[in-house]
DNA sequence: TCTCGGCTACTCGAAATCGAGTATTAGCTT
DNA sequence: AAGCTAATACTCGATTTCGAGTAGCCGAGA
């Protein structure tokens, strides 16, 4: 909620890494990868170096030495400062204790579901399910091998969360596809019929909204007042 | 997967809105809000106008008229082009059919769980649960009122997904807090003891990792080889 | 009649973001 | 001994992103 001087989550990972021991940026990146933290925090070289520079500028980390090996690029080793430790703790406090609004791709897509005919949507949802199942299997495999080597779960709880969320998403999509197929989803009769009219009569989708009763009958009178202008029809704004 | 000429999800919402009827940017923003789409797609004025400009530059939308009301700022009304319709469809196809890697705040926080003592973590998780419960109640309330006015679910499935994900997160956090409290979570004995040592002996957390056997006994020999330098628990399969 | 806050409709620029590119070396094969 | 690939360790700059600012209009109340 507080606006951080350096807001990129990668900066949080940098602070967390340097809290352990001094390192140079590239070393941080390899460490994050070797521990699989790059699956939880987006790592990208461009951002890494600019984030390190920003952290230094704000006094959260400081360069402790610059090594040169032959003609290779310099490696600047950084260490965390006291201010940096505080920032890291404050940040972790926020990440764990305060849920932030987040936006997912699927949610964005679902928001425009009626823009495609039902059958096309079902087809795409099936495709997503297949991909999700593969991803779930992969994560479960990774968990199995971590358990096999007795690597304690405290060190990979974040992966368990990811798995739980993937499973929920898969279940949701499966259920949704099923409800669309069976027309159980309220509104889908209207949706399906609308697309049939568009195809058979050759009219534009937008026209359906202009005179729904004409195309769908009295049952759909609500359409005139409601979508697309949900909640705030022209004449009088509804209380939400 | 394809890199879009305009990648901001808000651009997707703009295309979706203009597919319905021509509008000026500010009108798009109010429409998105009135329909609650701004809960699924991040809306911000700065981005809105730059995204509209970018869409126009790439021929996905075009200005159809410029209105002036008294001395108010001009309102430029845009319409979608044929290329824009295709882009929108392609984008929707991808959003629905292809899961993309996403990063959540909580996942980032969990990745650094051991950086705080167990009791502090439990406290923060409890705090998150409270906040999540409030959010869940709010979403459920919104659903109830949409059902009350018989607003068909097809138009708000995205909100159902959000609810499902929030519930999963809440369940996960509750379970995690419970397992930490009871030391059921593997590794948490080590974790708890480590922090006790840090506090009673006054040594630094990093030192524990240097000679774990000394502080924890033979049981923790695995520590030397494993974390923080986890070998490669996930020998990434290279499919494509 | 005045004024005050809220809505309308954008504008601006500093900062962040990201992927692709670069240059060096180590280790391996042929 | 030459060539090749992979790894190392960054650099660059074109976009993007975003929050804060601005300025006119409108209606309600004092």
Please tell me about this protein's structure.
The structure is a homodimer of 240-residue chains. Chain A is 58% helix and 5% strand. Chain A has three domains: 9-97, Arc Repressor Mutant, subunit A (Orthogonal Bundle); 105-181; 188-225. In chain A, a hairpin with a 7-residue loop joins strand 1 and strand 2 (75-80). Chain A is mostly helical. The first copy, chain A, has helices at residues 9-18, 25-34, 45-57, 82-97, 105-110, 118-148, 157-181, 188-201, 205-210, 212-216, 222-225; strands at residues 61-67, 75-80. At the A-B interface, helix 1, helix 4, helix 5, helix 6 and helix 7 of A face helix 1, helix 4, helix 5, helix 6 and helix 7 of B. Chain A binds a DNA duplex (30 and 30 nucleotides) through helix 2 and helix 3.
Strand order of the largest sheet of chain A: 1-2
Biggest chain-to-chain interface with counts: A-B, 91 and 90 residues
Secondary structure: number of strands of chain A = 2
- What's the number of structural domains of chain A? 3
Seen as an oligomer or otherwise, the chain set is: homodimer
Largest sheet of chain A: 2 strands, antiparallel
Gist?
2 copies of one chain form a homodimer. With 240 residues, chain A is mainly alpha-helical.
């Amino acid at each position: 909620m507080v606006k951080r001087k350096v807001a990129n989550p990668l900066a949080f990972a940098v602070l967390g890494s340097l809290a352990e021991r001094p390192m140079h940026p590239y070393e941080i990146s390899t460490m994050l990868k070797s521990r699989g933290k790059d699956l939880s925090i987006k790592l990208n070289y461009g951002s890494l170096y600019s984030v390190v520079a920003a952290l230094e500028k704000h006094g959260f980390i400081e360069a402790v030495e610059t090594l040169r090996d032959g003609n290779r690029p310099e490696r600047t080793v950084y260490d965390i400062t006291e201010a940096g430790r505080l920032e890291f703790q404050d940040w972790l406090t926020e990440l764990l204790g305060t849920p932030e609004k987040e936006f997912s791709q699927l949610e964005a897509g679902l928001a425009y579901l009626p823009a495609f005919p039902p059958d096309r949507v079902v087809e795409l949802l099936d495709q997503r399910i297949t991909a999700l199942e593969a991803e779930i299997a992969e994560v479960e495999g990774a968990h199995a091998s971590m358990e096999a080597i007795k690597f304690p779960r405290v060190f990979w709880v974040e992966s368990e969360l990811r798995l739980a969320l993937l499973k929920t998403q898969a279940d949701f999509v499966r259920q949704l596809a099923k409800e669309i197929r069976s027309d159980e989803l309220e509104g889908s009769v209207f949706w399906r019929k609308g697309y049939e009219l568009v195809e058979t009569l050759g009219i534009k989708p937008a026209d359906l909204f202009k005179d729904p009763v004409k195309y769908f009958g009295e049952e759909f009178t609500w359409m005139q007042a409601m979508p697309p202008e949900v909640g705030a029809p022209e004449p009088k704004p509804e209380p939400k």
